[in-house]
Structure formats: structure tokens, C-alpha cells
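Final paragraph of the annual report: two paired records, presented back to back.
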Amino acid sequence: MSELDWIAVDWGTSSLRAWGIDREGTVLWEERSDRGMGGLAPDEFEPAFLTLVGDHLGPGPIEAIACGMVGARQGWVEAGYRAVPCHPLDPEMTRAPTKDPRLQVRIIGGLSQASPADVMRGEETQIAGFLATSPRFDGVICLPGTHTKWVHVSAGEVVSFQTCMTGDLFAAIAGHTVLRHSVQTEDWDDAAFAEAVDDAVSRPEKLAARLFSLRAEGLLSGLAPGAARARLSGALVGAELAATRPYWLGQPIAIIGAGGISKLYARALESLGNTPSRAAGDAMVLKGLAAARALSQGQSA
């Protein structure tokens, strides 16, 4: 039976995931928890982590490499930002304070940009994972989500990046405005999404007016909730694509993320003449964590 060599950790605001890795890089086990950074006080991180992985630990110390919001100012310990342009990973990671002698925890720091001001934490690890599999990639990486990142990568470095709060805006509008009455459904309309993307890219200045029309069409013309939801998403994604056009226009694009949202962004970009590649977010996190450990040990990622 393979022996545990180290633990890979992805610790976000709302969830915690850990993978046990052997010396060959094989995943031995995976554990998940809802004990995200957002619900923990500083002295609760080690107990939460031990609750998740304690049964897998032996008597000797095991190294854990963590990425994500666990390194934020409100996290286990703050892992500082490095200014771009730079490699996505730093071999000098921040050590988290631990009382249990079986644990040695190090946290990957984030990246920052002075002008326009921007930060990322967690995405740098996915970028490193993607570059470990595609070391010659030169172009733009899109990481869609609550805060979508558009990242210019060249010669193995993050050159610059831009964050769009599209996911946050969708959640806020769908849950806390008059449109909540129009979009509360899991139904979806692909054609409505594509039409809204095209309209928003062509006329992003009309976004606010286009959004209220979803409510009006529901009242006057019986617009189906699935179509309204898809049009809301398409309008916001289209406005984002219009704003970030200088980043992605004419560039190779790779999308890293979960299947559903990555597919939406790919569909929107394809309608604008770009054919992006796609990579699974979980797989890139694991590859990035492995790259961080190898880099810290002076090995090739």
C-alpha cells in the first residue's frame, strides 16, 4: 500500500478540500468539508484541518501545501502578495502556526497589480497548474467564477490581470432586485443567452436598461423564467467581454474552471470568433499545488 508523502489543500471562503499524495504523485484519498475560511477564527483553522485529515496522519510530521483564502488577512496566517509581472508561484511559502507535531503547513501567496489595482488569491495556483501542462502557452487565461479573472501570461509569467465581479453581480441582481421575481428557476435557454451576449457586446452602455426589460417582458409578454435567467447571465457576461476585449481579442485563450460556467464562457467567446481551450479547475489546482511543492524543493515542476 502506498505511503502518504504530503497533503494538497485548497481552502476557500466557503469550503475546504484536501488530497493525500504519495511519492509518485498519486492521489491516495480526498476529503471535503464546508469549514471554509469565512466561518473560522484564526485559532480554529488547525482544529478544522485536523478534523478533516487527522485519521490519515501517522506519528511523523507530514507537510501540507495550501492555496486559497486560507492565506488571506482573515485566514490562518496572511501569505502576502507578490507584484506582477512574476512567476505565478514563489518557492518561499508562508508557514502556518501549528501545535500538532504531525503537521507542517505552508501557504501559497497571492499576486497583486498596482495599476489598475487588483489582487488574486488561489487563481495563481490554477495558473501554475495549467502552465505545468502547457509550458509554452502565451496568451490569456480566463478563470470564470464569482470574481472572474482575465490573466495575460507570457514566457511562464503572469504579466497583468483584470478582475470582473460578474458572478457577484449575477447573484446580487438575481437575489436582491426586482428581477428576483423573473429569474428564480433552474431552467435555461441557450438561444436567449447567446442573443443577450451579442447585444451586450455590441451595446454595453445599454446594460442597465436591458436588465429592467426582463421584468417588463415577463409582465407584458410572459417571458419564461428560463429565458430571463439566461438573458441576465448573457447580458452580464457580454458586458464583461466588451470591457475585457483589449485582453482577449486576437489572443489564444484558455478557460480554467468548473464545467458549467466554463462552457458558458466558451460559448460566448466562440460566438465572437474565438475558440478557447478548456481545463478543469480541480485538476489545475492539484497540478499547481504539486508544482509549488516541487519548486520549494528545488525540483522541476
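The closing record of the year follows.
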Amino acid sequence: MSTLLSQSGNAIANKYYYWFLGLLAWMPLPLASKRIWASMLLCVWVYVLSAFVIRFYIAHALQVPKPLRVAWPAFLLLGLSFSWQLYLSMQANVDAFSAYLSSMLALAYILIFLLCFLLINSTERIKACAWVLVFSALFQALYGSFMNLSGIEYLFFVPKDTYFGVNTGTFVNRNSQAGYLVMCCSIGIGLMISTLASTPAKNIREHSRRWMQAILSRKIILRLSLVMIVAGLVMTHSRMGNTSFFASLMIISPLALILGRFNKRVKNKGSWKGLFVLLASLVIIDIAVVGTFFGVDKVAQRLEATASEKETRDDVVKSSAPLLDKVYVTGLGGGSFYTAFPEYRTYETGRSFYNLAHNDYLQFILEFGLIGFLPLLLLCMIVFYLGLAVQMRRGDRLLRGMGFGVSMAVLSMGIHATVDFNLQMPANAGTFMVVLALGLIVYYFPTQGKRKRRGLS
């Protein structure tokens, strides 16, 4: 594809890709893009960038990348869900403004998904996307930790009014911050896996040489970044955020090791020993060392106290049951939960005002019904499977590493969604769409021929 482009054409393509990477780094900064002005800016950014990229493809008569051509079922599922959401928005039977805003964001998420296929078309760009997510999470972890330890307690140029003494970064809610860190850290772990040697060291001398190379290379930067991200995750004191991270890591790790042993494209099975050592070190270092110094004991105390505390979030789910019985098939429309729920709230939910259901599954079904929710759920399940299938079918270390990270991110988000509203935050939802797209890209990524591997770069 690169032979079809002039030097100026390549420069324009790279410029669009940099704008896309800038979007990924920007989304979490303005309070997770949850404020109306930030959501509108996100939509405009995505709409304009998508228009320019599509026009660029048409003007240069570029062939549609293979992952995009074969990923049509994913776009069909997204299209079905969005079409139903748009239909509900036009009915506007509860809250017209929230319904239209929800539809605008949904379209932006689909376009982010599309941009991934159009722009992430080389191994170099897969790496660059992963690095941007890692550095974005690193900034969130460091910024939130500094604000916490310094006592300044600011978000994005505005002071905090809740969650004092814990890491929230530029997010208002610590659980949403934790969900973002887990997704990006999962991709970072996948990137770390891709740096492992393809063959085991033959002797102590070679072991020492590899260790020195790792210390002097970007590996050490990546590993230290992951340690600091996990430290920031622990400092959020988010119970399900930390639980979903370590649970998904310990579930996906053995699955990847087992499936990898059947990979016929990896000739040297001894290379999986390095993967085992890396994954073991992640669990041991991150739990035993990072957790000890950054407050994993406080997370454990919150988990132990969960049964004795009055958790009104559970009561929100129970109180929503009568409403769910009425609308579980068709839904009420995007953004309608906070106007529909007060009629069904009970004494047990307390005096707090709930504008979100604290359960993504519940909120999606209430607002979009099973008609709009099941296609999205099916897409997530497909990508999770493909991320694991990559371990058996692809020989490229980067593709296998990204497959690992995608499966881990999808599983962790699925666990966390049972008690929180990560996917109601535009920053998290947009990043999750990138994760889903990466799962399809690395599975279908063409590896035959240098021209296909280079893409537009």
C-alpha cells in the first residue's frame, strides 16, 4: 500500500495518525470527557478526523485494510445496536437531550472503532498505540498520586469535592480511574510480553547479556511504567478495580500458557518459559512489593468490610427490578436512567441521587433493552475469544502479546462492570472500543510480505 502513496501522502497519513493518538491521550483528561462540553469536543474531534481519514482513503484510492474487510460482522453488530439506540432517541419518551447526547457519543465510539482499522495498519502503529495508552495511564497514576500525597487534590484544573485521600487522577470517580488504569495496564502487559526473547538463553553468560540489554533498552521503561500504574491502581482503593485486575491476570495467564503450547508457529516451546517467569513476576512484584508500599492493605480492609457496610449500590439494582421487567426487551433510550429510576427507588437506596446504575449490564439493558445490548455483548465475547485464539494461531510475538492484553482488558472490564459504570464514562468507553478493535486487528493482521506489514507508515 505504501507504494501507492507519495511522500506528501505518507506525511498526511502520519498526521492523521498522530491526531488519533492525541485523541486517545486527551479523552481521560477533562474529567473522563463526562462533562457536556468535553463530550461535545470528543464528538467533534472524532467526526472531523473520521471525515478527513475517509476522504484521504477515497482520494488516494487506497485498498481497505484486510482486518477491516473481514471484521464486517463486528460493524454489523455495532450497527444493529446503534440503529436501535437511534430509533429510541427519536422517540424521546423520557429525556430528549440525554437521548441525543447518548446517540452522538455512540456514533463517536463506532467511528473510533473504524479509525483503528484505517490507521493502525502496521506493527509499528500497533506498538505506538499501545505505548500511548501506557503513557496515558502512567500520567494518570503519577498525577493522581502526586495530588493525593501533596494534599492539593485537584482534578483537571478544578478542585476535588469527593474521594479525598485516594488516587483519582483527572477522573471524578476512583472506580472509573481504576477501570481505565486496568485497561491500559493490560495492554502494557501485552506489550511487555512482545519483548520476550523467542529462544531461551543457553548459558549464564547469555542470561547476563540479555539482562543488561533489557536494562539499557525500553524494556526497563515499560516495566517501571507498569509498576507505577499498578501502584496508582492500588492507591485508588477501588475494590473491584483491583480485584478485576488481579483476577483477570491470574485467569488469562495460565490460559495463554496452555494455548501457547499448541501454537505450531512457535517452533521453540522453551520460549514460553520466559512468559511464565514474566507473568509470575508481575503477580509477585505487583502484589507483594507494590501493594506493601502503596496501600493494598487498605483495599483488603475495604473488601473485608463490604459485607458489614451498607452498600446502597446493591439496593439500586434491586429497586430497578420492577422497571427492568417493563422495558428489558426494548429499553427506555440512552441516558434515561436518572430520570426513570426515581419513581422506583426505595428507602434502602438512601438519600443519594443516582444518575447511573452502578452496574453497566443493568444500565445498558434498561436504556437499550436486550435488542440493543445483546449485539454489544456478543461483540465483546467474540473479541475475548479472538484474543485467546491469537495465542494458538499467530507466530508474531507482538500480535500474541496484544492478544493477551486484549483478552485481559475485556475480562477485567466485564468483571468490573457488575458493580460500576466504567462504560458510562466517554474516556473509558472510547478506550474500550480501541481495545476491541485491537483484538480484531491482531487476529486478522496480514503477516505475509513487507508491503502489507508496513501499511501507510
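The chain has one domain: 2-454. This concludes the annual technical report; the extension proposal builds directly on these records.
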